[in-house]
Amino acid sequence: MQSNRETMKKNAWKILRMIGIVVVVATVALLVECVVFQQNAIRHKQKPYELNGLNRENVEIMQKEDLAKLTDEEENAIRVQRENERLIAEYNGEEYKPEEDETLVEKNEHFYRKVKRTVFDVKLDNTLFIGKLGLHVPLEESGGYQVTLYQDDKQIADGLFCSINPKIDAGIMNVGRRANRVKIVLTTQTACDASEVTLSIRNDFTINVLRYVFLFVLIGSTCYLLFQIFYGRFLVDKPEIVFMCLAFLLGGMIICGVGTNQVGFDEYAHAKTAYDLSFGSTIETTEAAMQMKGNLLPYFNNAAERALVEAYEQQVATEIAPDITHQSRMVRTETRVYYPMAAGFRLGRQLGCDFATMVMLAKFGNLICYILVFALAIRLSKQYKLLVTLIGLLPNNLFIASSITYDAVVTAFLTLGTVLMLNELLEPIVKLHWGKVLLMLFCFEVGCLSKPVYIFMALMLLFLGKDKFYTRWQEVIFKVALLMMAGLMLYNIFKPTPVSGGDYALVSNFSYAGDPRNMGASVTGQIKYIVQNPMAYAALLLGEMGTMLGDYLSCRAPFVGYAYLGFAPGFVNFVLIICYVLAALFTLRERQYYVAKDKRWFKKSALGLPYTLLMLLMCFGVSAVIWTSMYVSYTAVGADTILGVQGRYFIPLFLPFLSCLFLKRPEDQKAGRLIRIWNKIPARAMYGVLIYISVLLNLIMTYVFIIKQLNL
Amino acid sequence: MKRIRESIQNRIHILLPLATVICLFGFIGSLLVPDTVLDTYHINMAEAEGDTEQALVLSDGAHIGYQMDTIGRAMRGIQVGISKFGKPLSGILCYDVYVISGADKTLVSHNEYDIAGGDDLQYVYLPYASYEQCVGALLIDFYMQSPLPQEIAPGIMANHTKVDNVTTFYLDEVSDMTLKSNYIYTHKTYPFLYDFRLLTCIFLAATMAVKFPVKKQRKAVENHAE
Description:
A: alpha+beta, Jelly Rolls, eight-stranded antiparallel sheet, 14% strand, B: alpha+beta, seven-stranded antiparallel sheet, six-stranded antiparallel sheet, 3 helices, 13 strands
């Protein structure tokens, strides 16, 4: 009784202490937000300045016509659209004629848009601190404006550009300069009426909630991980719990910061599938959802624009009647990986949330699924928990888990499958357990639903030794079943099981298969080309693989990134490589059980020579298949380069590749000095430092790409 | 929980093979009993800029002919927009399907639709009886069973979009308009085939990780007999 009371007292004290620390961290974060980041609002306190209608005395107006060159993406989009329309016309046996657009001018193989430029030279009543400058113009088509600032007729800033989306009729930019004259060059497709243009200049004191949470996480995680490095044991004993908390906070910040901006790779296409899946057989697509599916939602660049964008989205999500279509309840195989996101969409609708919140819930569905599967992978991994935790905290992974895309499900399930597979390879004489086999194969199946080429990873199980099985025939049947499973998944690429949908004829017709985003892509055409020129293709493949690997290793190509938001500088690749290599080499001595028997250099390898070589071969093979799949489905026939391959496709291979560095760490008095020092490094220090580096990397990227770019 | 786990563990050498067999039967069943689903192809559902949709009226025994080609597939039906001009009209719309072979045409399907059942301007699905024969160049002839005066006759929606290999006839002449329509085909699907065939392999592999007691028992029986 006495001891119970004491334990309760201890726990209560612990909770109180924790709450106290949280309150202190929250207060410090608030102080930093107010004192450091709101300096300009405090120092240059002023009333909002607004000019409703710019046809007034203190504004000089000038208008002219001009040609604006389209961006490379816009030009490519026009070319791709024309090519796709031509293909469809050919498929339907029709003659193709490109649609005429009077505002478009084709000159010297480039596209230009006819535009009107209106120059507003605004003399302000007095010098103002321009925190945010907003221009509200009712437009039918997209426009933009460029700002030059003057102080006493001396130019102090130039080239500040802001786009205006006709859906919100406004463009707001962050400036942060003092000026008493503003020159605005407004570019529109039709002449604009100056009396309808509104200029606003603001410098408000507003707490930025996202930045505040960022500061809270930064200070909180620093304190916690420093404490763990010196005193803690929890991080080493339960890294999955720490991972879950950190990943949720970091991913949550990304989701809340990105909002409805579609910045993930092909996010609109994934959003369409996930949104449709969230309904049963009848899909009700609101105007907002339709724009989301078509990548047409307005984009925001700061908090003020975000408020306008979300208000617009909510308006078109409720005021306009939904478009009703039907779908089969039997969803396509590769569509099932969207269930976590579809659950979020459905929950958002059931709770009556606004459109932006519904989209965020869909992303949270994806994030939670990723976190749970990865946490299980960390928990089930043996001595290499640290490495799995670091892979889970990789910024690329957290970003895709916080977007609408199936890649997070693929990565998480493949990692869990690989962990279970590695556990078996590391224990060559321990018999297989049916439960682990079920879970492992199920994970590989789910991970490969949408990207079946990864199933080659599971083929490492073919090399399990006879000691893993009770009888010889069990071993044979197991391996035959595994081969059949892999074969059937690959067979489904070439001959998918028919499902309902109007694309049936195209899906089942290889002559028309090929990525519609690229011109000249044809699956049959490319396969024919490879078969006819095997040596040329082998040289191309090896060359491309070597170039990409060389670019990443020499830091020429950045790897760590947040998709379309941007990438970290190339040197971060090295930071990542060092962290991963250290984590792979670091194994916990006290739970040592590896039994690989090798001589010489491989005597310290946990996997042993045969499995190491096979693992490297598997990684090379899967990489080659990934490259080939992109050549076949995404690249124009016979091209001398392979398009569309991105570094993120190789993330599922990180764990198997790095497993070749796993070490046995037996107590060895005769070991060299370096080994003895290495063996003496406390686990808590290694865990704390490497995880802190990962967290810091995530936080810096979130601040640079999400808070600064989208939410100030 | 522990008891359930122990119970499963004790019977796992039966449960896993059983699951494998169930999946195998599921796989065979999926293969033998496919599902047939409708497949909609949008042919002419939107107007070009400046064009407006109009109704071709089926008054005074007028016929609308719609000639098209199924490119080798059996056509299950067609979806057309029926206008009642805002009135509660009734009557039976007949739509006969002819297969065209050179200069000959053969009636392969006679069908009827009660227009009282549908909403105004609804795009109704008009299935073909004996659809298996509706293959190749087809002429679909729309007319009202009993001739109706203009005031109470329905119409079928059309526009001026040109669709290749399609001809619309109105009042026995080639019209410059084209019926707005979706073509309905069918195809077979195997909804659970993928899952069952993979699950068969997965359960079979998991079964191979179970220690079967059969051999020991048999030995024990043999020893006892001796």
